[in-house]
Amino acid sequence: MRGILFAFLGGACITLQGVANTRISHDIGTWEAAAITQFTGFILAALVWMLTRDGRVAEMKQVKPMYLWGGAFAAIIIFSEVTAIQHIGVTFTISALLISQLCLTFLVDIKGWFGLVKQKMKLPQFIGIGMMIAGVIILKL
């Protein structure tokens, strides 16, 4: 249950962040909005980390260098989301974003990328993705 609650919280924040960044980008620019968002996110994460001290920074040397670039994806995510919202609106952007995430996570699960255990996907999962895509198409009509 806790995982579902955090998933809903994360999804809500993605939407709110996209809308806020779109508004900011109208005033200062999209890459500037991405930079400010990344910076404020860093400040919040650093504050929470200082208060909780639940990490093991000394073990960062064990992390593969390519995984340390994960934060750089956030700048591309912000730019892409803001640009999409400006062109196609919030609802369609978030719908397309979710479908993109699901399709890529299918590949990650099926192939076992990033050291994850390979998962078998069955017909119901593929039907579910197809229904989501059909729903977005109907939503856009």
From TrEMBL:
Residues spanning the membrane: 28-51, 63-82, 88-110, 122-139
UniProt keyword terms in alphabetical order: Membrane, Transmembrane, Transmembrane helix
Entries under InterPro entries matching the protein: YdcZ (IPR006750)
Name of the protein in its database record: DMT family transporter
Record organism: Paenibacillus farraposensis
Lineage: Bacteria, Bacillati, Bacillota, Bacilli, Bacillales
